[in-house]
Amino acid sequence: MKRLIKSELVKLLKSRTHLILIILLTLSTVILTYLSFKDYGRLYDDLKYYENFSGDKIDSISAAKIVDETLHQYAGKWSENTYQQIKKDYLQLVSKYPRQIINDEAMKKVYGDNYKPIMDKSLAGELTEDEFEHYMSTVDASRGYSLYGDEEGHCHIQLYYNEDGIYHLLSLIYTSPYFVEENDASQTFDTVWEENDYIFKHGEQLVKDNYSYENSNSQQLILQDYLISQVHKLPQTFDSVVPNNLFLKALRNILWAPLFVVIILLANVFGIEKQYKMDEIIYPTSSSKHQITIAKLITGTCLGIGIVWLQLLVCFLVSSFILPIHTWNIVIINMASSFFIDWGQMYIPYTYLTVVVFCFLLTTVGSFAISLITLGISYLTKSRFIVVIVMTVFIVLSWFIKRMTFIPTLLKTFMPFNMLSFLDYFYGYTAEQGYPYFIFHNSVIPYRTIVIVGWSLIGILIVWMLIRQARKPAID
Q1: What is the pTM of this model?
Q2: Strand 147-149, strand 50-51: pairing
Q3: d(CA 284, CA 294)
Q4: 374 in Cβ contact with 387 (< 8 Å)
Q5: Are 71 and 335 in contact (CB under 8 A)?
Q6: Is 355 in contact with 248 (CB distance < 8 Å)?
Q7: Other CB atoms within 10 A of residue 362 CB
Q8: Where are the alpha helices (DSSP H) in 55-184?
Q9: Are strands 443-446 and 437-440 parallel, antiparallel or unpaired?
Q10: Using one digit for the tens of pLDDT, what is the confidence trace for 418-461?
Q11: How far apart are the first and last CA of the chain?
């Protein structure tokens, strides 16, 4: 058996095309992971940039490191004292770096060379929108600009200061997605941080506010009771979760590509002997048809899972090199422009540790299922072309099914390709996915648990059927 498995593995990996695919896949994982971090805190305007507290321009990754280092210093049990200490330090930094010096170069690019009269009127509260529009029609300025009005009907233009780089960094650390304004710095901070403070202190109420069933009050109460029990298990600790959120964001970007490589590599497992005329090497006369099939299944599934695991490991190593994770056992929150929960999503009463454990399980079982389906079609057709076509149709169909609101949520989450979108098994209600929970009588079972157990059993059944129906390919 060891000789057969080794032979199958060598057969798959000796192909130069296969090796190139694996290498390119791994390189793409490195690049996509790096770009996920590089995209952090993007300002979308070349007149806006980050500066460290020494006044040096920095890129987004350097900014992320400063953000993480700053927030990590408050690590510990969350309390009102923690909240007030963060706010105190933030207000001291705002006072330490006042916006005083106008950035003449930036102002000229936006408002033209003669911007000062318009700026003075704006500061004095005397500028009207018509007056400003007339002025802009006379200057050669091709850039967009920001204009906002007040209650008296006057308008104010966006001003650019030399200290804006530091203020963008302060905004990223403390008040994202809002920009720090000196005159309402305290209010802006409270707007952002009261949300996280509420998550730590009032998780039970958030569950009641967020999770409800329109058609069944009893189901609503059952689900709420279950989630409240999860809230009571959450640690009340605070730390920077910027590395956690960026790592999970990177994972979301890299997990689909390995599936296509797995399909291509395994598409011809049961037909390669006919293609290369090497039956006598791979099938010694002493080998039974069961041994041959078992060797192919073991090799194929292990290689499929191994390719996905390799990408998980590479993503984690690159993420750790850029921004090491401090802790996993902390409640999920959005922090400093790093988002685990997209806008419009709901409160998730879990820790990052739970998410990562199930991410590993879901991707493992998902790649196992996809490998077995690919091997099964290869066994039936003995044609790489047919396997690739069928699996491609399967991928497209899974993508469309996921977005069909009339299809039951359990069916959508049961599609093996969707298992690689592991965050869908934790999100609250969405139009596409629905609630990620199955309620049966008085019990609540997360769909992720059903999917993992279900596909493990289906996988065992597929293996049993293939072995039972296996027959040794005839030698031409």
Answers
A1: 0.86
A2: unpaired
A3: 15
A4: yes
A5: yes
A6: yes
A7: 25
A8: 60-72, 80-96, 104-111, 116-124, 129-137, 164-170
A9: antiparallel
A10: 888 888 788 765 555 567 888 888 888 888 999 999 999 998 88
A11: 24
- CA angle in degrees (0–180, nearest 5) for 364-367-370: 150
Q: Which amino acid is at 85?
A: Q
- Residues 6 or more apart whose CB falls under 8 angstroms from that of 444 comprise 222, 223, 226, 437, 438
Locate 167 and state its tokens.
């203020």
Lookup result for tokens 């994982």 = 29
Find where tokens 């080998």 sit.
287
**CB-CB contact of 422 with 363 (8 Å):** yes
Which residues, including other chains, have CB under 8 Å from residue 457's CB and lie 6 or more apart?
none
CA-only gyration radius of the chain, Å: 28
* Cβ–Cβ under 8 Å, residues 368 and 301: yes
**DSSP per-residue codes, 148-210:** EE-TTS-EEEPP-BTTHHHHHHHIIIIITTSPP-GGGHHHHHHHHHHHHHHHHH-HHHHHHHH
Count of other CB atoms within 10 angstroms of residue 14: 9
Each domain of the chain, given as residue ranges in start order, spans 2-39+237-468, 104-157
Q: With 0-12 CB in 10 A as exposed, 13-18 as middle and 19+ as buried, what is 158?
A: middle
Question: Is residue 4 packed enough to be buried (19+ CB in 10 Å), middle (13-18) or exposed (0-12)?
Answer: buried
**Tens digits of residue pLDDT in 22-44:** 999 999 999 999 999 999 988 87
SS3 426: coil
Q: What is the mean pLDDT of residues 311-334?
A: 94
Report the SS3 class of residue 45.
coil
Count of residues making up the chain: 476
Q: Which two tokens stand for residue 226?
A: 């279950």
Is the per-residue pLDDT at 377 higher than 60? Answer: yes
- The better pLDDT of the pair 195, 327 is held by 327
Integer Cα distance of 143 and 83 in angstroms: 40
